[in-house]
Predict the 3D structure of the following.
Amino acid sequence: MLWLWNYFRGYVVIEVTGFSVERFVNLAVHHGIYIWDVKFGKKGVVMKVSPKGFKMLRPFCRKTKCKVRILQKRGYPFIAFKYRKRKLLAGGFIFLVISLYLLSSFVWRIEIIGNDKLTNTQILTSLKSMGLDTGRVKYLIDTKKIKKTLQLKFNEISWVDVHIKGTRAIVNLSESIEKKEVEDKSYPCDIIAAKDGVITNMVTVSGTSVRKQKDIVRKGDILVKGEITAGIEGESVVREIVHAEAEVRARVFNEMSFFVPFKYTEKRYTGDTEKKYGLKILEKKFNLPMPGTKFKNYEKSISMNQLKINEDYPLPFFIYTEHIKEFREIELTRNIEQAKEYADKIITGRVVRELDIDADFVDKTFEYAQEPGGIRVNAVVVTIERIDQKQRIEANSL
Amino acid sequence: MGIKKLFSSMFELPKEIILNLPLITLVGSEEMSVENYKNIIEYTEEKIRVNTSCGVIKIEGSKLSIKQITQEKLYVIGKITGVGYLY
């Protein structure tokens, strides 16, 4: 720390030569001159002394017949003296400080943390209407008011905090726990089949089952009637319309038919890439003048980098990089065996994609038919899945 | 002198202030400070002689240099091998 103090005060490195340097140092010290770092140099004794003390040294030189030579002038006062006429440099420095201050007094980025159901754009647009947007002066933003209005506007928000850190506005929120959707059981209904199939098992919670296990059902058939009869058979029978509930699982035959051509194209990356750079200031893009891509077929992806002083002070400048990857489309042909393999892959993909999570995969059978330019595949995928579906009983049908 | 010595020992006062004696502090063999010195008699890289009120102090070593020098305190750094009095 003493080093920093000395730098701001400035100091002179001198070399003293003569018969009695000791006497010279003694004299100077007794007159209150501060001397430090006394070392032996090539010719004489090298020491450091303050500029003020240096001016007082002359009478001691004469007295002790020593010679003093300045080796270096170090420190801030000397640098300031050297650059005293360079007004533009000083102006530039002041301009830098001012522009940094001005730039850091705006909000340049809004971060939203903790939203799950609410989308970012939903929150951002409402923030915008409340005066919080990128490019606004951060001192004029009333975070308390924004907090309150956000909470009133969105019922999903149970707690929210808005604060400004550097040039970032951070919206931290937590959403209330989702209310479990209560199934509406107020209306009377039947259970019908959603698909064709053979019933494997059936659990009726309420209602009267019409069909039983091993029955073959068609799509739309009533499985469970929303009707209960109470009382002794033949006597005073009370009929009540209810909301039927049941879990019906059935063996379902899913038919699929598609065409696999022999000729196909495949994307293959050549490994050649190009990079293009551009600058984005706020919302405006500036492309660097660069020649267009020389590739015929290519894929483009853009990555963006925001400039920032540190984590809390992002600036409104973005550098974006376009990564361009070249690929070539190759025409390939496959034989029947490969086509069959490919068909199998398609079916597995479809089963995973289209069928319910509850569905159990049982079996699959294929049929191939040769056609010009490819094969037609007829596949039957057998699964066991839920087929119950509710159908409202209309009041007038009673 | 005798009264002062008695006085300082009676009240347990620091002698370097009452009697103006030098106070030498050694930090290992690399740093040394001499307080209450009068002046430097000789200064080379191997030997420094300092005049004090109770005789001359001789500091021996190699690559000796004066880190700081004020009216009250002399601060020497380097490899110190010996310190002694010359009467």
About this structure: Strands of chain B lie at 23-27, 31-35, 39-43, 47-52, 55-69, 73-86. Residues 2-10 of chain B form the longest helix (9 residues).
